[in-house]
Write a structure and sequence with these properties.
Strand content: 15-25%
Shape: globular
CATH topology of the largest domain: Aldehyde Dehydrogenase, Chain A, domain 1
Distance between the termini: 57 Å
Radius of gyration: 23 Å
Number of helices: 10
Number of strands: 16
Strand order of the largest sheet: 10-9-11-8-7-12-13
Largest sheet: 7 strands, parallel
Length: 339
């Protein structure tokens, strides 16, 4: 946590940055300038590192933070928050810039969602599907976040087998309970027959249960039959669904139908195919020849993240310091009036 704070501190200050500027024919000079969002409410479960990450990211972006952690880590959250407050005081900054909701009462969440529009500008949920769904359903202010991480790895006909094996196993098995874990493996039917067998075998050897379509089941008798529900499922466990597809366009169509617009990857040595995938798959994060487990603000060089957003407005992907800002237009004139 301390290392993450140091990385965030070393980032450039986004506030006041001129995103773009231009001069109109009438002499008006117009600038688009980064500004804070305001007060950000973060509702999270389990992980006390969110207390440090969220507090630091909000502070660095000149936002105030209102943190509501889960009851299971209440004492840890309080201890971490105490360190942050001590740091604020030592830097002669307002101790109230990062506040921790002092009660574990679940009614506090409802109040943040529907009773504090006057005080909270944006809400960010971090936790399980039920928490995120509740925040998105009940919030009366904008929400930054994602509901599911149904992520895919597509192995193309021009993939190198060693790379495909490494990426697929890492994407699924490095940490199965994170939102960037792969939940479905798509394999091009035009791949050499040994590819499908090797991929399934490697996943099973790593301790993963494989549920597959007819082609996958034919490749390895240990594969369990997949149902329609499996293609939609975010397992967050050592389980993966495997489907054989007729080329990249069918892979893209599968992702569009069943995916959650979170993170999807292609493994291929064909640059044109990769660029087609990267441009056509409408997810917050798309990768070429890399594991979906890189869907993380720290791995993107942001120091940390306050969450991953699958929204199509404002912030998308890892939400770091820059994504916790908005902008305003600053117009400088010399007495111009509009005719």
């Amino acid at each position: 946590m301390a290392s993450g704070l140091e990385q965030i501190a070393a980032l450039a200050d986004p506030i006041g940055t001129v995103i773009s500027e231009w001069t109109r024919p009438n002499g008006l000079r117009i600038s688009r300038v980064r500004v804070p969002l305001g007060v950000i409410g973060i509702i999270y479960e389990s992980r006390p590192n969110v207390t440090a990450d969220a507090g630091a990211l909000c502070l660095k972006s000149s936002n105030a933070a209102l943190l509501r952690g889960g009851s299971e880590s209440r004492r840890s959250n309080a201890a971490v928050h105490g360190c942050l407050v001590a740091g604020l005081a030592a830097a002669a900054l307002p101790a109230t810039a990062i506040q921790l909701v002092p009660t574990a009462d679940r009614a506090a969440v409802g109040e943040m969602l529907a009773g504090m529009q006057e005080f909270i500008d944006v809400l960010v949920p971090r936790g399980g599907k039920s928490l995120v769904a509740r925040v998105q359903s009940e919030a009366r202010v904008p929400v930054i976040g994602h509901l599911e991480g149904n992520c895919h790895v597509y192995v193309d006909r021009d993939a190198q087998l060693d790379m495909a094996l490494a990426v697929a196993v890492n994407a699924k098995m490095r940490r199965t309970g994170i939102c960037g874990a792969a939940e479905t493996l798509l394999v091009d039917r035009a791949c050499p027959p040994t590819y499908l067998t090797a991929l399934i075998g490697a996943l099973i050897a790593a301790g993963c249960e494989v549920r597959g379509d007819e082609a996958a089941a034919a490749a390895d008798p240990r594969v369990q039959p997949a149902t329609e529900a499996d293609w939609y499922t975010e397992y967050l466990d050592a389980i993966i669904a495997v489907r054989v597809v007729d080329g990249i366009d069918q892979a893209i169509a599968h992702i569009a139908r069943y995916g959650s617009a979170h993170t999807d990857a292609i493994v291929t040595g064909n640059i044109a195919t990769a660029e087609h995938f990267l441009s056509r798959v409408d997810s917050a994060i798309v990768l070429h020849n890399a594991s979906t487990q890189f869907a993380d603000g720290g791995e993107f060089g942001m120091g940390a993240e306050i969450g991953i957003s699958t929204d199509r407005f404002h912030a998308r992907g890892p939400v770091g310091v820059e994504q916790l800002t908005s902008y305003k237009y600053v117009v400088r004139g010399a007495g111009q009036v509009r005719p």
